[in-house]
Design brief:
- The structure holds two protein chains of two kinds.
- By secondary structure, chain A is α/β, with parallel strands linked by helices.
- Chain A is built from 26 helices and ten strands.
- Chain A has three domains: 158 residues, 3-Layer(aba) Sandwich (Rossmann fold), CATH 3.40.50.300; 75 residues, Helix Hairpins (Orthogonal Bundle), CATH 1.10.287; 346 residues, no CATH class.
- Chain A is 66% helix and 9% strand.
- In chain A, the strands form two sheets. Chain A has a seven-stranded mixed β-sheet, with helices on both faces.
- In chain A, α18 runs antiparallel to α24 and α25 runs antiparallel to α26.
- Chain A is elongated, with a radius of gyration of 28 Å.
- In chain B, the strands form two sheets. A six-stranded antiparallel β-sheet of chain B has the order 3-8-4-5-6-7. Chain B has a two-stranded antiparallel ribbon with strand order 1-2.
- Chain B is α+β, with helices and mostly antiparallel strands.
- About 13% of the residues of chain B have low confidence.
- Chain B is elongated and about 70 Å long.
- In chain B, a hairpin with a 2-residue loop joins β6 and β7.
- Helices cover 43% and strands 17% of the residues of chain B.
- Chain B folds into three domains: 61 residues, Winged helix-like DNA-binding domain superfamily/Winged helix DNA-binding domain (Arc Repressor Mutant, subunit A), CATH 1.10.10; 67 residues, Orthogonal Bundle (Diphtheria Toxin Repressor, domain 2); 71 residues, Ferrous iron transport protein A (FeoA) (SH3 type barrels, Roll), CATH 2.30.30.
- Classes of the chains: A alpha/beta, B alpha+beta.
C-alpha cells in the first residue's frame, strides 16, 4: 500500500508526514528529476504502509519542476491513494489544487489542516459539507498541536474513495472535452491537460491544439486562462458555501514592518549579517575542536605507524581529505544550514526576496536569486544546487558566475586567517568590498552577454510562523548529507592526486614552471603557487599550505603585508573549489563549469597583478 | 491545379476537421471555398493524385501527413499575416483576414518565420495612437509587452486599494499567476508597494510578491 501526501506549499504536509512516520525517513530521487521525494514506512495493524511526501505545488497543470514531477508521479500510478492536505486559513486557494487532484480520480481523503489557526481568525469550516461536495471523507486537523493526526492513517486506509466531483467548465471547453473523448477515446482529465498543451500523447495534443486555437480565438483568452478561471470560480463558490466567517479581528501583522523598505531592508541586512557572523564564530570554534581532535587522535598516531613512504603518503592524503571535509562541513556548512533552514521555515526568505527584488534586477536577476546568493556565503556547493529555483537558463548562468565569486565560509577563513590576522581588520573588509564590486561588474556584464529573456518573480509569501525545531534539524541534516556525498569523494580523490604529485615531485616542477608568474607578476614567493594550487582543492587549505611551506605559522614574519593581501585575494577569487566545479558541471553542464573556472582564474590573476603593481 | 487552390483546399479541410472533429464532405468544401460541387470532386482526385489526401470508398476523405503539414503551414502563414495586418498595421480584422488569404500563397516560409519572431519580440509595439490591444493578438503563444493599453495595471494603484483583475498580458509567463488565483474577475488588494513598484497583493487570503514587470502585466480596475 502506497499513500502520498499532496498539497500546496506551506499547508503543513511535511509536519504531518513527520508526525506520521517519525524516524527512518529516506529521500529518494524520482527518476528523471533532481528533486528528492521523502519516503517513510509505517506499520498499521500489521500492514506495511509506504508514505510519500510529494513536494508542495500550486497546480497539477503547471510546468515547474515540482509540478511536472507530481503530475508524472500520479500519472504513472506512484500512489494507491492520496492524502490531500489543505490549509484551512487559505481554503479557497487550496481548493483550486484540490479540484485538480480530484480530477485524477484516485481514492483520497481530505485533511483540512491548521483548523486551529483558522478558528483564531474567525473562520469556521463545515467539513461535512466539503466532504459531500467532493465525495471524499474530510478530517479537520491541527498538525502544530498534534490534533487528529493519529486519525489520518486509519481513515486513509479504510475510507479513501475516488472523489465524485465534476467541475463545470465553460461550455466550449466542455464541448471540446466531449469531442476529444469521443474521437480520441481519452479520459476527461487527460483531455484537459492536452487542451492546455501538455501531455505525452502527441496525437491527442495535436487534436486538442486545433480545438484550443479556435476556443482561444472565440474567447480572446488562452484555454489555460479559461480553465483556471473556471476552477477558481468553482473553488470560490465552494469556500463561500463551507466557510462561516465571524467578523475578523484586527491583528498585528509583522509584515507591516518586514516588507516595508524601511525598516525592512535594514532588518534584512541585520539578519543576514548576524547569520554569517554567528556561522563564522561558531564555525571557527567548532573547527578548532574537530581539526585539533582529528590531528591528535588520528593523524599523529597514523604518521607514527611507520608505513612504507608511498602507502603512507596515500593514506595520509585520504585522512587529510576526510579531516578537511569534516572540518568545513560540520562547523561551517551545517551551522549555516541550521540558520538558513530556520529562516526558510519561518517564511522570512520570501520577504527577503521581495525586498531584494530591485537590487537583483540591476544584476539581471530577480528577487528569488537572493536565496542562492545567501546560501553561497555558507558554501557554493549547495548554492549551485539551489539554482534550480531560478526558472530560466539565463538567470541560472548569471547566478552561477556570481556564486563562484561570493566569499563562502572557507574563503572567510582565508580572509580572517591571513588578512585580518596579519594585515588588519580594515583590510579584511576591503577584500569584501573588492569582491562586492567585482560581483556587481560581473553581473552587469553578464546580464548584457547572456542570451535569453528576463522574467520577473511571482512568489507566494506564506504567513510567518514558528518553525518546528525537528523539521529544521531534519532539513539541515538532509542538506549536509547531500553536501557530504558530493564533496567527500572529490576531496579524497583530489587529495590523493595532490599527494602523489608531491611524492613524485610533480608539484615542484609546477612550482618552478609558474614561478615567473608568481614571483614577477604577483610578487609572491615561489612556493605560493603550490599553496594556491591546494586552494582549488579546498579554499582554506591555501592558507594552511602556505603556513606549512613557509615554515612558520607567523606569516607576517616571512611575507610583507602586500604579499599577504595579494595572496589572500588571488586565492579567494581564483578557480572555485573542485567540489563547486563538480556541481556546476552536474547542474549546468561542462561549458558553464569551464567558463566560470576560466573566468575566475583570469579575474584572480588580474586583480592580483593590479594590487601588486599599485601597492608595491 | 493552381498551388493557391491546392493550399486553400488543404487549409479548409484542416480547419473543418479541427472544428467538427471529422473531415468535410465535398459539399462542405464547396460551400467553404465558394466552388461548384462538381469541380470539387475533380479537385479531390487531383489532390489525391498529389498525395495530399486519401479518398475512401464511402466518399469521405482524410488528409495524408504531407497534406496536414502543408495545411498547417498555410494556417500558420494566415494567422501570422492576419496578426501583423490587424494588430500592428491596424487593419480591421475581416479585411486583414481577406488580405492574408491572398498573401499567404505567395509569401515564403522565411518571411513568415521572421515576421513571427518580430511579432513575438517585445519591441514590436503598435505605433502610438493605434487603438489595437496587443495582447489581443491572434497568434497563439505571442508574448506580450509590459504595459496595459486601456485598463490600468496594478502598478498604477497605491497600497490598500481594492481592485478587480480584468486581464493578464503575456500568456507565456502567467501560468503561475493563474494558479495563484490572479484570474479575470478576481478581487485583489495591494498590501505593499515599494518605490521600485515591486508589489505584494493579497489574493484569496494569500500574499503574493510580484516583480514590477509582472505586476504591470496585470490589468485591473477599482472595485466598483
Amino acid at each position: 500500500m502506497k499513500i502520498a501526501l499532496i498539497g500546496n506549499p506551506g499547508a503543513g504536509k511535511s509536519l504531518i508526514f513527520n508526525q506520521l512516520t517519525g524516524l527512518g525517513v529516506e529521500v529518494n530521487k524520482y527518476p528523471g528529476s533532481a528533486i528528492g521525494l521523502e519516503c517513510g514506512n509505517v506499520c498499521y495493524k500489521n500492514e506495511k504502509v509506504e508514505l510519500v511526501d510529494l513536494p508542495g505545488i500550486y497546480s497539477l497543470d503547471g510546468d515547474s519542476e515540482e509540478e511536472v514531477l507530481v503530475r508524472r508521479f500520479l500519472e504513472r500510478g506512484g500512489a494507491d491513494s492520496l492524502i490531500s492536505v489543505v490549509d484551512a486559513t487559505k481554503l479557497e486557494r487550496n481548493l483550486y489544487l484540490l479540484t485538480q487532484i480530484a480530477e485524477y480520480g484516485l481514492p483520497m481523503v481530505i485533511v483540512v489542516n491548521m483548523i486551529d489557526a483558522a478558528e483564531r481568525q474567525g473562520l469556521f469550516i463545515d467539513t461535512g459539507r466539503l466532504g459531500t461536495i467532493f465525495g471524499s471523507v474530510v478530517l479537520p486537523t491541527a498538525a502544530a498541536l498534534g490534533k487528529n493526526i493519529d486519525r489520518i492513517l486509519p481513515l486513509a486506509l479504510t475510507s479513501s474513495q475516488p472523489p465524485t466531483l465534476r467541475i463545470p467548465y465553460d461550455h466550449h471547453i466542455e464541448a471540446a472535452l466531449r469531442s476529444l473523448e469521443k474521437t480520441m477515446g481519452t479520459p476527461r482529465q487527460k483531455n484537459l491537460l492536452a487542451l492546455q498543451g501538455t501531455g505525452d500523447d502527441a496525437a491527442l495534443r495535436d487534436a486538442a491544439t486545433s480545438i484550443a486555437t479556435e476556443i482561444e480565438q472565440r474567447h480572446r483568452m488562452s484555454v489555460g486562462q479559461i480553465i483556471a478561471t473556471n476552477r477558481h470560480n468553482f473553488a470560490q463558490g465552494v469556500s463561500a458555501e463551507v466557510i462561516k466567517q465571524s467578523p475578523e479581528k484586527k491583528r498585528f501583522d509583522l509584515d507591516s514592518i518586514l516588507t516595508r523598505a524601511f525598516p525592512g531592508i535594514p532588518i534584512l541586512c541585520l539578519i543576514l549579517f548576524s547569520l554569517l557572523l554567528s556561522v563564522f564564530v561558531i564555525g571557527s570554534w567548532m573547527e578548532g575542536w574537530i581539526v585539533g581532535g582529528f590531528t591528535e587522535f588520528i593523524l599523529t598516531p597514523y604518521t607514527n605507524l611507520g608505513l612504507p613512504p608511498l602507502v603512507e603518503r596515500v593514506g595520509y592524503s585520504v585522512l587529510v581529505a576526510i579531516e578537511a571535509g569534516l572540518g568545513i562541513a560540520f562547523p561551517f556548512v551545517f551551522t549555516f544550514y541550521l540558520g538558513l533552514s530556520f529562516l526558510e521555515d519561518t517564511g522570512y526568505m520570501t520577504r527577503a526576496a521581495f525586498l531584494a527584488d530591485r537590487s537583483m534586477h540591476r544584476l539581471g536577476l530577480h528577487g528569488e536569486a537572493i536565496i542562492p546568493m545567501v546560501i553561497g556565503f555558507g558554501c557554493a556547493v549547495p548554492a549551485v544546487m539551489s539554482l534550480r529555483i531560478l526558472k530560466t537558463r539565463r538567470e541560472q548562468t548569471i547566478a552561477a558566475f556570481l556564486i563562484t565569486l561570493v566569499p563562502c565560509s572557507a574563503r572567510t577563513v582565508v580572509i580572517a586567517g591571513i588578512v585580518a590576522a596579519f594585515v588588519g581588520i580594515i583590510w579584511a573588509f576591503s577584500i569584501y568590498l573588492i569582491v562586492l564590486i567585482l560581483i556587481i561588474i560581473t553581473a552587469i556584464v553578464m546580464s548584457r552577454l547572456t542570451p535569453g529573456e528576463q522574467f520577473g518573480m511571482i512568489v507566494e509569501m506564506p504567513s510567518l510562523r514558528k518553525p518546528s525545531a525537528k523539521l529544521v534539524l531534519q532539513k539541515s541534516w538532509f542538506r549536509i548529507k547531500e553536501f557530504l556525498f558530493i564533496a567527500i569523494p572529490l576531496l579524497i580523490a583530489t587529495s590523493v592526486f595532490l599527494g602523489l604529485f608531491q611524492y613524485f615531485g610533480v608539484i615542484d616542477m609546477f612550482q618552478s614552471l609558474v614561478a615567473p608568474i608568481t614571483v614577477s607578476l604577483l610578487g609572491l614567493p615561489a612556493y605560493a603557487s603550490t599553496a594556491l594550487l591546494f586552494g582549488i582543492f579546498r579554499k582554506e587549505l591555501a592558507f594552511e599550505t602556505l603556513a606549512v611551506l613557509s615554515g612558520t605559522a607567523d606569516l607576517g614574519s616571512v611575507m610583507t603585508s602586500v604579499q599577504l593581501y595579494t595572496f589572500a585575494i588571488v586565492s579567494i577569487l581564483f578557480i572555485p573549489c573542485i567540489s563547486t566545479v563538480a556541481v556546476l558541471y552536474k547542474q549546468l553542464g561542462a561549458k558553464i563549469a569551464l567558463l566560470t573556472s576560466v573566468y575566475s582564474l583570469f579575474l584572480g590573476m588580474l586583480i592580483g597583478v593590479i594590487i601588486n603593481i599599485l601597492m608595491k | 491545379m493552381r498551388t493557391s487552390l491546392r493550399e486553400d483546399y488543404l487549409e479548409a479541410i484542416l480547419i473543418h476537421t479541427g472544428r467538427f472533429s471529422y473531415p468535410p464532405s465535398a459539399q462542405d468544401l464547396g460551400k467553404a471555398l465558394n466552388i461548384d460541387e462538381g469541380d470539387v470532386h475533380t479537385h479531390m482526385d487531383e489532390l489525391a493524385h498529389h498525395g495530399d489526401i486519401s479518398q475512401h470508398d464511402d466518399g469521405s476523405i482524410t488528409l495524408t501527413d504531407q497534406g496536414t503539414a502543408t495545411g498547417r503551414q498555410i494556417i500558420k502563414k494566415h494567422e501570422t499575416l492576419q496578426c501583423f495586418l490587424s494588430d500592428i498595421l491596424g487593419m480591421d480584422r475581416s479585411s486583414a483576414s481577406d488580405e492574408a488569404c491572398k498573401i499567404e500563397h505567395a509569401v515564403s516560409d522565411e518571411t513568415i518565420d521572421r515576421l513571427g519572431d518580430y511579432l513575438r519580440s517585445p519591441v514590436s509595439q503598435p505605433p502610438s495612437g493605434n487603438q489595437v490591444n496587443p495582447e489581443r493578438s491572434c497568434l497563439r503563444g505571442v508574448r506580450v509587452h509590459d504595459s496595459c493599453r486601456y485598463a490600468h495595471s496594478l502598478v498604477d494603484f497605491e497600497e490598500g486599494e481594492r481592485l478587480v483583475v480584468r486581464d493578464i498580458l503575456g500568456r507565456g509567463c502567467s501560468k503561475r499567476l493563474l494558479d495563484l488565483g490572479v484570474v479575470p474577475g478576481q478581487l485583489v488588494v495591494i498590501k505593499r508597494k515599494l518605490r521600485n513598484r515591486s508589489i505584494v497583493v493579497q489574493v484569496k487570503d494569500c500574499d503574493v510578491a510580484l516583480s514590477p514587470e509582472n505586476a504591470s502585466a496585470i490589468c485591473v480596475e477599482r472595485m466598483p
